[in-house]
Design brief:
Helix content is 53%, strand content 4%.
Length: 328
């Protein structure tokens, strides 16, 4: 085991915790999960939802390894082969998709990096573990006509006596804001009143990793938001979109109102709120917007993520060509 020295270790590394086989019985059998979560919250400043996802991933990991850890396997004894066996278990026995496996893999990489950094283990076993190759699927998008049809129906399934009330105005504002900005559902439900500047038609969005960006509101969305705010009677509540109890609306409630709107429209394609995000990006590209602008509006980390919409746009161009060119 490493020896504890005064200023620096024998290999020249800065002073740190001594690594031991048991590390005080893996810190009373929580295996430093509390320390890791505190690190995510305080140092990484991750959102509560993201932290919960890390906790869920670690739970799956320790459910698998508990029998081995009870039989005196240590965190420092987990090697690359053991990790690969765990990933195989997820893929074969638990039938996880490649995307789900990669999600667990990303969490484990962060967890073991933390353990190595804090010197609870000598070396992370994750260094050479690669993610599973994902099948490439083009996102589903709605045509401009389908979007127009869908947005025209927003709120119309509400009882006639309530069509000018809070719920009707809110549903219209939510649907218009989705398509105007291309934001994610969690970004929309996370909006506060002070995030929206109707005069300048901009909206401040907090995205993944608590990173903020500005998105643009079109005039139709502004009009819908003005009508909603006139119907919104909840002084002192900061959340923008509320349920009928004057609490921040949930992601699930927004998914429900979207499904209801789709059901009562003439659009017969499968769609979710995220479909409007894909449709927004595709229609912007088809209208002449450059990829860099779309990347910033969507809040993508990498331009390569945005480039998938060029494939969708080309698919649309091919469909129009095949339908309109006089020769086959």
């Amino acid at each position: 085991m490493f020896a504890d020295v005064n200023d620096e270790d024998q290999d020249g590394a800065p002073k740190g915790r001594p690594v031991t086989d048991s590390s005080s019985l893996e810190k009373a059998r929580n295996y430093f999960q509390r320390d890791f979560i505190n690190y995510l919250v305080v140092e990484k400043n991750l959102s509560p939802r993201t932290v919960q996802e890390y906790q869920k991933d670690l739970k799956v990991f320790f459910e698998y390894f508990k029998p081995f850890l009870d039989a005196e396997l240590t965190l420092d004894g987990i090697d690359e082969r053991t990790i690969r066996e765990f990933l195989t278990h997820l893929k074969i026995e638990r039938r996880y998709t490649a995307k789900a496996v990669n999600r667990k893999l990303a969490s484990l990489k962060a967890y073991f990096r933390f353990l190595e950094k804090e010197r609870y283990i000598r070396k992370s076993p994750m260094a050479d573990i690669k993610g599973l190759k994902l099948p490439k699927h083009l996102p589903k998008v709605l045509s401009r006509q389908d979007v127009d049809t869908l947005l025209a129906k927003a709120g119309e399934h509400t009882d006639a006596r309530r069509r000018r009330d809070f719920t009707f105005a809110r549903d219209r504002a939510i649907m218009e804001t989705f398509y105007a900005t291309g934001m994610r559902i969690s970004e929309l439900t996370g909006l506060d009143l002070e995030d929206v500047d109707l005069q300048n038609r901009v909206c401040r969005v907090t995205g993944k990793g608590n990173k903020q960006r500005l998105v643009i509101l079109n005039k139709t969305a502004v009009e819908a938001l003005v009508s909603y705010l006139e119907a919104r009677k909840a002084p002192g509540v900061h959340a923008l979109f509320l349920n009928r109890m004057n609490k921040r609306i949930s992601n699930r409630a927004v998914e429900y109102l979207f499904a209801n709107t789709l059901k009562h429209s003439e659009v017969r394609k499968k769609a979710t709120p995220h479909t409007l995000r894909h449709s927004f990006a595709t229609h912007m590209l088809e209208g002449g917007a450059d990829l860099v602008t779309i990347k910033e509006l969507l809040g993508h980390e990498s331009l390569s993520t945005t480039q998938i919409y060029t494939n969708i746009s080309m698919q649309h161009i091919r469909e129009v060509y095949d339908q309109t060119h006089p020769r086959e």
